[in-house]
Amino acid sequence: MSLTDLLQFLAAGRKTGTLQFDLGKITKHVYFQNGLIVGSKSNDPREYLGQVLLHYGKVDEAQLQAAREAQRTSGGKLGEVLVQQGSLTESDVLDVLKTRTLDAIYDLFVWTEGQFEFFDEEPLPDDLILIEVEPTTVIMEGIYRIDELARYRTLVPSDRCILELNPGWTSSINLGKEFRQIFFFVEKRMSVAEICYHMHASTFHVYGQLYDLISKGVARIAGELPEEQPITRPAAEDLPETLTELIWAAERKLDNDPESALVMIQKALEEDPKNADAQKLLPEAEDKLIKHIYSTGLSPTSVPVLRVSSSDLTELQLDPQEGFILSRINGTWDVQSILSICPFREADCLRMIKRMIERGVVGV
Predict the structure, then answer these.
(1) Strands 36-42 and 115-120, how do they pair?
(2) Which among 71, 77, 160, 249 would be 20 to 30 A from 170, CA to CA?
(3) Rounded CA gap, 103 and 40, in Å?
(4) With 80 as the cut, is the pLDDT of residue 176 above it?
C-alpha cells in the first residue's frame, strides 16, 4: 500500500492503535485514536527533541550540551531540564514536541520502501504528547512535500552536490540568519549532506533553501562528490553469501566481535530493509558495540583532540558524518558531550570516533 492509501484506510475505519514503520535502522510509530492521528515517535536521531530544537533555533549547541550534562545528573527529561535552566518555556517545549511529531510523519512520505504493521487497539504510551490531526491534513502536506522535493531535485540532484556562490552576489542582501548559515557552509564547500548535518535539518528543508538560492542566481552547482565507498566489511572469505547465513554469522559474533556483527546486520538490512531478524538484532549489536568500545580505553568522559593540522584534514577522505564530528572536537568537549549534539546513532558515532583514533586523526 502507498502511505496515502494506508492513512486513508485507518481514518475511514476510525481505527485506534499503533502504526509501526521499519526501514533499516529506523523505526517510527504513528498513534491513532478513532481515526485521528494523536502522536508519533521515532528512533531516528535527526528527529530527537535536541536535534529539532537546534533546527528551529530554540537552543544552540552549547545550551543543548549543558542541558544534557544536567540531564545525566538529574535523570529528568530534556524538555524539563531546559525549562529549569531558563532556556525555554513550557509552551516552547510543547510547541516543538508537536512540530516534531508531525515532521516525523511527513518524513515517511519521502520513503520509497519500508515495512508497516498495525497493532489494533494497542494502548497509547503514557508519556505521549497528544496532538489531534486529521489524516487528510497530513496526507495533503505529505503529497505537497513529495512534489516539492521532486522539483528541488531538478536543480539539486543529490546529497553529494557542492555549491558555490555566483560572482556578483553581495553580502548586503537582506537575508535571514538561516540563509547566512547556508552561505557560510557553501563558502566552506560543504556538500548538501554536510549542510544538512550542520544545520540539524531535514533533507527536504535544506533542498528547499538551496533550490531558492540557485533559482535566484545567487549560487550554482560547482561539482559533486564521488559516491561513498562501501562500508568496510569483513574479509570476503569470511563473509557469508546468503542473507540467512549472514544473520546467523552476526549472531555468532555478537559477543566476541560486535563491530563485525553490526556490519553484517547493516549489510543484511541494505539487502533486505524488511528483514525482521536483522531489525531485531540491530539494537542488541549496537548496545554490545557501545560497551565494547568503552571497554577498550575510550570513555564517555574522554576528551578527543585533533592530531592533524587543518590543512592536512582537507586531504583526508572523510565522509560528511565524520566531518561533522571532527568540527565538534575542540579539546574541551568530552565524548558524551559530542554525542549529545550529533544527529547520528550512538553506535555509529562511536565507531567513527574509534576509526579516526585508529587512523591517527584524533587522540584522547
Answers:
(1) unpaired
(2) 160
(3) 9
(4) no
